[in-house]
Design goal:
Number of helices: 12
Strand order of the largest sheet: 9-7-5-2-10-1-11-15-19-20
Strand content: 15-25%
Number of strands: 20
Oligomer: single chain
Bound molecules: guanosine-5'-diphosphate, 6-O-phosphoryl inosine monophosphate, magnesium ion
Length: 422
């Protein structure tokens, strides 16, 4: 069976930490969408790693890690990531599989990303500039190049044809701040490097493994509120980050999916532009950013912070069919006199607990309920019973309000700082 692990907010919920924590229960960890816009942090044995494209099971022995067809991969970044992991003595040549249908991010996709963002001015998405949007556009526009193409003798011709198209688009956007030749050298070196890896027909592989009874964890990237269909459009990423993306991003049937594990932070963060109803633009927001070290794992940008948003969380639970929840970064709220949860939104049309279609344009006033905070440092606690009652109340409330089991609580970045609740 396949269990799915995905973020329920705007990304950076802690998917990497939990995927790594849960991996001993699985034979295979697979990424099904997104690309190096993701930054998944793992902490163990006093070391920290950030993974962009490689699944978070890579540090566990005997775990196969699959980059699925739904992913977009940047060869140069992927090469660097592989080299860093190989330096740790990991047998990455055997433990990493890449779908032949994974789409390639070309240097010109990155340039197009920058050119598009620049042309949007104030309305920019705040993209990670990793070329994600333009690569998915070429995929749906049926122009893209895939990992399997690098094995073909006419790859260079196809590459040059696509680059010519891109250069016209870049010119139309009056963008000239780039040096293509400089980026092409490491790109072609990375292709040579990747040709020595296991590039496979991953849909056959994964379905065969399922038949053999293997357990698979599908690791999401980004978060549900950045989903191309259900996120706060247009301030979203370009893939289906929600559970539906697993079937198309790996080539598996919905019937093969068992658990859908949804991860959320005890508060909210967002990096990049777009609506954020519960955002705290004050000292408290700054304090949460500082305590939670809320700076992007990929771009280093400060993350916007705010209170937990129940209408948004419930929306994500609904879209994904979440079967259990994991709450992250509970330790960050320690020491606050009161903590707040947004239960509903007030707009010009009244009060509602549903996400409005035009969330990106509407003025939303969050309606909060305030609760007594907890004062203890949670990161030193290792059993649910020992957690402060105020914090347990917070957990019970979220579980009740989402109608979902809250199974794990994370109280620090390390693998060890994780508590089973149910
Ligand atoms: P991902 O993209 O969902 O994998 O999340 P990121 O790695 O981008 O961001 C999560 C950040 O929070 C990372 O720096 C993690 O090391 C850190 N983190 C994860 N869980 C916890 C936790 O429970 N408490 C604290 N304080 N930090 C955490
Ligand atoms: P992980 O997997 C947080 C955001 C960007 C931007 C928008 C579009 O680490 O949770 P893109 O580069 O995809 O065109 O950017 O989406 N974004 C993320 N925010 N975590 C991520 O990944 C993100 N990936 C993209 O900041 O607002
Ligand atoms: Mg991240």
């Amino acid at each position: 069976m396949i269990d799915v692990l995905l973020g329920l907010q705007w990304g950076d919920e802690g998917k990497g930490k939990i995927a790594d924590f849960l991996t001993p229960q699985y034979d295979i960890v697979a990424r099904f969408q997104g690309g190096p816009n993701a930054g998944h942090s793992l902490h163990f044995n006093n070391k920290k790693f950030v993974l962009n494209t490689i699944p978070s099971g890579i540090f566990r022995e005997n775990c196969i890690n699959l980059i699925g067809n739904g992913v977009v991969a940047d060869p140069e970044r992927l090469k660097k990531e592989i080299e860093n992991i190989a330096d740790e003595g990991i047998d990455i040549k055997n433990n990493l599989l890449i779908s032949k249908k994974t789409h390639l991010i070309l240097p010109t996709h990155r340039i197009l990303d920058a050119a598009n963002e620049k042309s949007k001015g104030d309305k920019k998405i705040g993209s990670t500039l990793r070329g994600i949007g333009p690569t998915y556009m070429d995929k749906t526009g049926r122009n893209g190049l895939r990992m399997g193409d690098i094995l073909s003798h006419d790859f260079n011709t196809k590459y040059n044809e696509l680059v010519q198209k891109h250069l016209k688009l870049i010119q139309n956007l009056s963008y000239s701040d780039f040096n293509l030749e400089e980026s092409e050298k490491p790109f072609f070196e990375a292709l040579d490097f990747l040709r020595t890896f296991k590039l496979i027909d991953s849909e056959y592989y994964i379905n065969n493994e399922l038949k053999k009874g293997k357990k698979i964890l599908a690791e999401g990237a980004q978060g549900s509120l950045l989903d191309i269909d259900f996120g706060s459009y247009p301030f979203v990423t370009s893939s289906n980050t929600t559970a539906g993306g697993v079937c198309t991003g790996l080539g598996v049937s919905p019937r093969s999916i068992d658990k859908v594990i949804g991860i959320f932070k005890a508060y909210c963060t967002r990096v990049g532009s777009g609506p954020f109803p519960t955002e705290l633009n004050d000292e408290l927001g700054e304090q949460i950013r500082k305590n939670g070290m809320e700076f992007g794992a990929t771009t280093g940008r400060p993350r916007r912070t705010g209170w937990l948003d129940l209408p948004a969380l419930n929306y994500s639970v609904m879209i994904n069919g979440v079967t259990e929840l994991i709450m992250m970064k509970s330790d960050v709220l320690s020491g606050l006199e009161n903590v707040k949860i947004c239960n509903s939104y007030k707009t010009s049309e009244g009060i509602s607990d549903l996400l409005p279609f035009d969330i990106a344009d509407k003025h939303i006033e969050p309606i909060y309920q305030s609760y007594k905070g907890w004062q203890q440092d949670l990161s030193k606690i290792n059993s649910y019973e020992d957690l402060p009652q105020e914090f347990k109340n917070y957990c019970n409330l979220i579980s009740e309000q989402t109608n979902c089991k809250l199974s794990i609580i994370s109280v620090g970045p390390d693998r060890e700082e994780t508590i089973y609740r149910e």
